[in-house]
Amino acid sequence: MKQLLSLEKVNQSFRIKGREAVTILKDINLSFNEGEFVAILGPSGAGKSTLLRIIAGLITPSQGTVSYLGKPIIGVNPGIAMVFQSFALFPWLTILDNVMLGLEGKEMSEKEKLERSMNILDVVGLDGFESAFPKELSGGMRQRVGIGRALVSEPDILLMDEAFSALDILTAENLRRDLLDLWLEKKIPTKAIILVTHGIEEAVYMADRAVILSTRPATVRTNLPILLPRWRERKSTEFLTYVDKIYSLMTNPETVGNGDAASGVFGAADGGRQQRREPVLLPNVTASALTGFLELLADSGEKTDLYKLADRFIMDIKDFFPLVEFSNLLRFSAVTEGDIALTEDGKIFAEASVLERKALFKQHILDNVAFIHEMAQKIENDTDQKMDIDYFQEQLAASIGDENAEKQMDLIIGWMRYAELITYDDVSEQVSFDNSL
């Protein structure tokens, strides 16, 4: 297959004034070939959309090279068009005018632009709506306009950033099938499609290959070919095997260096000795949410299929994955081949009293989150056993940026208060060591 696009040793960092650069993407090496439909998956906040914007030429990578048809791109990638999650239509323009915007700057006569735009409206199922305004259309039809605007320029590569996530289930499914029909029947000139998604089923249903990113700083964990015939049956054993495989890849602890699990903000605590690593954002899960998850997991039996568990809980993937990640991080559960099971301590936690749970949570959070281990030690060893929260937040901000640091600090304080490791005074913004447990 002919290679259309490649990324070589791409790194992306953002520098905040007075802080160290925050690394979003690290050592990304990817290629995209003619005839491929590729899905990009990864945890929330991993940098999937940033990667897509680098491919589009909307962001210049801090390091590395992005090449289109063998030549490094400078500025906007000329062979690419993009479909956004939010429709991004101009409300004061008609549907036809919105689509024709995709031809701005093209050396074409107005007649040619009009003919091509009318043709693409027919292709995406909007014939007869050319004079309507966006407010007159449903969400699904508005997204069809967005797809039409991207396709009208006849790009080699169509980029889609969570393009179906803002739609209701039935509308999204209908649009997926229609897009696949256009792609498989070669009714559009596009040579490759790259879809950023958090939907594992969506990826297996639509894509020929799944690129799975790690947590931030994102690296390519896996390039997984999806070798299923078209059209795909969601309930088939083969389909569910791929779904389980991706679930397992995305929820297992990541290995770094010698294979130790990378957990916490600066790696796992080991008897008070921390191994510094690239900072990893902690899963945004409260202690009470974890408790409920472990109780439900205990009720589900010895071993449970992740895909079926998410379906049973009626949980969005973006909410489900952090729970699994946090549970695994604290060694209350483990994932193997797409199945999740409680560890012995996880079983004890699920059946324990409130105070017993607090004690067990305290033990596991100190053992498995190095930053919390360090923080607790510093507060305990302080003369007054009291410190300003800004001291710790600035440590985080130096590695993950101010906005992330504030959110992570709130999360950490909540965990440590639940474990009765600290008390926190919201007025003075000071944390004190708690000797009550």
From TrEMBL:
Molecular function (Gene Ontology), one example: ATP hydrolysis activity
Database matches in SMART domains: AAA
CDD domains, per database record: ABC_NrtD_SsuB_transporters
Domain ABC transporter: 5-240
SUPFAM superfamilies: P-loop containing nucleoside triphosphate hydrolases (SSF52540)
UniProtKB keywords: ATP-binding, Nucleotide-binding, Transport
InterPro entries cross-referenced by the UniProt entry: AAA+_ATPase, AAA-associated_dom_C, ABC_transporter-like_ATP-bd, ABC_transporter-like_CS, ABC_transporter_ATP-bind, P-loop_NTPase
One Pfam family of this chain: AAA_assoc_C
PROSITE patterns the UniProt entry points to: ABC_TRANSPORTER_1, ABC_TRANSPORTER_2
Domain of life of the organism encoding this protein: Bacteria
PANTHER family per record: ALIPHATIC SULFONATES IMPORT ATP-BINDING PROTEIN SSUB (PTHR42788:SF13), TAURINE IMPORT ATP-BINDING PROTEIN-RELATED (PTHR42788)
Protein name: ABC nitrate/sulfonate/bicarbonate family transporter, ATPase subunit
Annotated organism of origin: Megasphaera vaginalis
Lineage: Bacteria, Bacillati, Bacillota, Negativicutes, Veillonellales
